[in-house]
Amino acid sequence: MKVLFLLKSEKTPSSRIRMLDMAPLLRQHGIEADVEVLPQSYFKRRSLFKRAREYPVTVLQKRLLSIFDFRELRKNAERLVFDFDDAIYHKNASCSRNPADYKSFTRMGKFKRTVRGVDLVIAANKVLSEKVSELAPGTPVEIVPSPVDVGNSIPKSGYALSSPPVIGWIGTKSTLRYLEMIAPAFRQVRDRREFVLRIVSDRKFTVDGVDVECVPWSLETQNVEIARFDIGIMPLSEDPFSRGKSAYKLLQYMAMGVPSICSPVGMNAEVAGDDDYCLTAADNDGFSRSILKLLDDCELRKSLGIKGRGLVKRVYSIEVVALKLAAALKKSIPGLFTSLE
Predict the structure, then answer these.
(1) How far apart are CA 189 and CA 113, in angstroms?
(2) CA neighbor of 291 nearest in space, from 166, 122, 121
(3) Domain locations in the chain?
(4) 67-76 and 42-51 are packed helices; what angle lies between their axes, rounded to 10 degrees?
(5) For position 331, what pLDDT does the model report?
């Protein structure tokens, strides 16, 4: 079964994580993925959309098209699937306390048109799935999380603290604002314990009064850097955009066996469980308490590290998710789906 995947860019993280990395595994489950980046040229887009006639399924990955492009693609695609992993129906104004800052009539209009006009939506988490069901109750939705490759990296092997201990964070410059939000927590911990805040990113970051090390991010070295963390952190603000996030940083930490702390926002809370797989912290005081708790308890660090990695292997590994995605794509064609062993 050949499937046409239409991507915004091969460099977009969601396209790499949710499609390009899984293509070889999809082939093992009977899905041959042909990947095309949506061109800038109007005429080249029209030519590409006509190619959709050659495929039983076309997947539009996270791109909200203009009404003219969407109609053209819809006209040519036999079965059209939309895949997304962020609250793209909102503006990305995270950390704002004003709900109006997240509203965009243009984005919401394009999103409604898309989810009402496709044959299937693949959402990365429950929050996004529920939004689709709210806006397009007649459109089937499958939840397929963003996968983590657990097998190709060496996880954390010991839980004795580094000297000094390393509290780590990984992410792009656009999400550094979440770290700024909990800067007071780092200072509270620094008043009681020595530690290094290690940032793996494409931009440098500082916190007054805190020892910060900045490490350039690269795809090849990111897992090695994560495994060097003593504690991983994923703060989020409680806002409409952040609630749609897919807990990917948290899953990366856990996949490498790193005990972690997250804000219980959206999918983060689901992954954390009742603090079974990682600790949760709702505010600055919560983050400082949780960091100190992990710094002081080696057995807790080990327990969370081992259980967290086990959860990722069972539910969020690339092998498990690729099987789920293949099943969803086959199921999108009535009468074709057969159970996958």
Answers:
(1) 48
(2) 166
(3) 2-147+317-331, 166-316
(4) 30
(5) 87
CB 195 within 8 A of CB 231: no
The pTM (predicted TM-score) of the whole model is: 0.94
User: In this structure, are residues 270 and 125 in contact, taking their beta carbons and an 8 Å threshold?
Assistant: yes
pLDDT at 308 over 50: yes
Q: What is the mean pLDDT of the chain?
A: 95
Cα–Cα distance, 60 to 195 (Å, whole number) = 44
Mean pLDDT of 300-328: 97
Q: Which residues contact 216 (CB under 8 A, 6 or more apart)?
A: 200, 201, 202
Which fold, 166-316? Rossmann fold (3.40.50)
Dist. CA 276–CA 195, nearest whole Å:
25
| Mean pLDDT calculated for residue range 227-233 | 98
Sheet hosting strand 166-170, strand order edge to edge: 212-216, 196-201, 166-170, 231-234, 260-262, 279-280
Task: Give the integer Cα–Cα distance in Å for 82 and 94.
Answer: 24
Lookup: tokens for 96: 């704002």
| Burial letters 31-40, b for 16+ CB under 10 A, else e | bebebeebee
Residue 92 in contact with residue 237, Cβ under 8 Å?
no
Coarse DSSP helix, strand, coil percentages of the chain, rounded to the nearest 5 percent: 45, 15, 40
Superfamily of domain 2-147+317-331, CATH level 4: Glycogen Phosphorylase B; (3.40.50.2000)
Q: Which of 225, 289, 236 is nearest to 262 (CA)?
A: 236
At residue 335, the pLDDT reads 64
What confidence tens digit (pLDDT) does each residue in 288-307 have?
999 999 999 999 999 999 99
Cα 75 → chain centroid: 31
